[in-house]
Amino acid sequence: MKTVRLSIIGFGAVGQGVARSILSKQEYLHKHGINLCVVGIADSGGCYVDTQGIDLKNAIATKKQTGTVATGSDGVLDLINGIDHDIVVEATPTNINDGEPGLGNMLAAFESGKHVVTSNKGPLALRFSELKEAAEDNGVMFRYEATVGGAVPIFNLIHEALAGNTIIGIEGILNGTCNYILTRMAEERMPYELVLKEAQELGIAETDPTYDVEGIDSACKLVIIANSVFGDNATYHDVDVTGITKITPEALELANENNYLIKLICEATDGKLTVAPRLVPKRHPLAVGGTLNVASIQTDLAGRITISGKGAGSIETASSILSDIVFIARNS
């Protein structure tokens, strides 16, 4: 049995989802010769460290009751640098202004010889090349499946299952909030403002939905794809972005009459990065509804491969994080 020691930095919905996934999958992991031992958890209140292994069920309960797992005065970097472990799971909130605190956490992990698994888009949308090089320079792995598409395995598919193929272009729907709003507007002929309010009440849209509806979240994800798949050195500022706030029920109705849907499509092809509403034929692989995400990958050998699935949610995102953890456990 191989014991892999890890820390979880950021213990909000995603971090707790990772803890729940580890708890629920212990039998599966043990069957495959892997024992995951969480030795540190950090949230906005501070850190909780137990080098013998944290009781995850208790940590989740404590977080719910008190709002923090913190038991000491040590900072996050003390945990990353000072505690012996193998993998840092970086699940702090996305910040596209300067990428912090995730950027500093990831660089510190690499410099101290630890692998990083992350769901945090901000650092990768701003300084992907620097992070990749830091991981390579320190001989550790950098895995980020959860940054794009929630549970949809885009990077695993491209880098592993489609290894040997040249990727010609990628297009898809990478934001479930926008897809839900456009789907509801088309189905119910409701105006944008009403559907947005409904989405907020259901917890699908944030109280401040700007990142989603203005296409910023989609653009960040597209940049990560372009940098990872095409070796670009792009940032969020290199994407031509148009959001969905100006789309009317009338425009959706007109599209419907001609057997089209309007979707917020991300596209990376010929060195161009675009996020914008586009007409999609109703029978097209990209014509998915609700909160689903979809990615359609054009390759030279395999042709077009399209995958779809849940693009958000704590357990769904944790699914991708756990997949990356297992990959490292097997290959490190």
Detail the topology: elements first, then pairings.
Elements: E1 2-9, H1 13-24, H2 26-31, E2 34-43, E3 46-49, H3 56-66, H4 76-82, E4 87-90, H5 102-111, E5 115-118, H6 121-137, E6 142-143, H7 154-161, E7 167-173, H8 176-188, H9 192-201, H10 210-213, H11 216-230, E8 240-241, H12 249-257, E9 260-269, E10 272-281, E11 292-299, E12 304-310, H13 314-331
Parallel strand pairs: 1-2, 1-4, 4-5, 5-6, 8-10
Antiparallel strand pairs: 2-3, 7-9, 7-11, 9-10, 11-12
Runs with pLDDT <50, length 5+?
A: none
Specify Rg, calculated over alpha carbons.
Answer: 20 Å
N to C succession of SSEs: EHHEEHHEHEHEHEHHHHEHEEEEH
Kindly state the number of beta strands: 12
Average predicted confidence as pLDDT:
95
End-to-end distance: 14 Å
Q: So what's the overall shape?
A: globular
Major sheet strand order? 3-2-1-4-5-6
What does this structure look like?
- Helix 5 runs parallel beside helix 6 (121-137), helix 6 (121-137) packs parallel to helix 11 (216-230) and helix 8 crosses helix 9.
- The protein starts with a strand and ends with a helix.
- The strands form two sheets. A six-stranded mixed sheet has the order 3-2-1-4-5-6, with helices on both faces. Strands 8-10-9-7-11-12 form a six-stranded mixed sheet.
- The longest helix is centred in the last third of the chain and has 18 residues, at 314-331.
- The radius of gyration is 20 Å and the shape is globular.
- It contains 13 helices and twelve strands.
- It is of the alpha/beta class and 332 residues long.
- Helix 5 (102-111) links the parallel strand 4 (87-90) and strand 5.
